[in-house]
Amino acid sequence: MQKKYKYLVMIIIFLPLVFFAAVYGLSAYKMSTQYAPKNRDFKVATNADLSEGKRLAIIYGCTSDCHGKNATGQDFHGLPAPDLSHIVHRYTDQELEQTIRQGISPNGLSLYSMPSESYQYLSDEALSNILAYLRTLPITKSSATTRNPSFAWRWTLLTKGHTLAVDLIKDISPPKQTEQNQPAQLGEYLARTICTECHAPSFKGYTGFSPSLTMVRAYDTEAFEQLMATGIGLGQRDLGLMTLTSRERLTYLRPDEIHALYRYLRSPSLIETLSAPDK
Asked: Which segments of the chain does DSSP mark as H helices, in order?
């Protein structure tokens, strides 16, 4: 009888260890795949706008909730956001472009927490301004650039809950300039580079995490401006992550950008696409 209990205890201990080892092993194997990035001959402009770069660095998470206020890196909901004060100097302009817009690090591995599916649409102008600004920041004494995501993330990678960054990149050519004077193009540009990070490339949201952007139809202009600036939703509701994101990042959008984004998200063609059932 004692032997049976002994074997049972061994099984109870052994099986979870096998499960954890399998998840770590299989996820590590998937993350070790090598990819070849495109060479776009990107270079940071010598006349980059540093003040605009500072604003954009906040909006796109470089110096706000993702990588920390000073871009020195932090744990971002179980995922390591590395210290950018080192990376922007250690990587070449071309390597930074491939990392940010193509989701491929200099060693050929796919990133696993970088929203490159959104940043692939960033214009050369915007990316240049951001990188030029980041290179003005003081370099910290140490750099945490570990590639060790949490067990939960590894599990969802294997069960299709998460996807490697490189798998979401399309065969597109990023724009050279940001169309500041074309509201329709500017609105779509902002939606693709900002909104898709949380609301999916389809704008239909992620089940159990974020809503479809059809919800913008319920907002008039004033309510939408309040949402972007303060994160307060209809009925004066706190919207959790959206509220935090608005207060830390989206509040830095200019009025013309907010209006262009609002106009695009309420455009009949997009609403029709969002309302259509998934195939």
From this structure: 2-31, 50-59, 84-90, 93-102, 116-119, 124-134, 151-158, 183-190, 196-199, 221-230, 241-248, 255-265, 268-275
SS3 category, 65:
coil
Helices (H) and strands (E) in the chain, counts: 13, 4
| CA angle at 191 for the pair 189 and 195, rounded to the nearest 5° | 140
pLDDT > 80? residue 159: yes
75: amino acid identity, one letter: D
Contact 264, 188 (CB under 8 A): yes
Between 228 and 152, the more confident residue is 228
Task: Name the least confident of 24-28, 125-129, 226-230, 264-268.
Answer: 24-28
Polymer length in residues for the chain? 279
Mean pLDDT of 84-101: 94
Total-model pTM: 0.86
* Residue 143: Cβ within 10 Å count: 16
Phi, psi for residue 89 in degrees, rounded to 5:
-95, -35
Q: Which amino acid, one-letter code, is at 63?
A: T
Name the CA dihedral angle for 39, 44, 46, 47, rounded to a multiple of 10 degrees: 120
237 contact partners, CB below 8 Å, separation of at least 6: none
Give the Cα separation of 246 and 229 in Å (integer).
6
Copy the structure tokens of residue 272. Answer: 């029709």
CB 216 within 8 A of CB 265: yes
d(CA 80, CA 111): 11
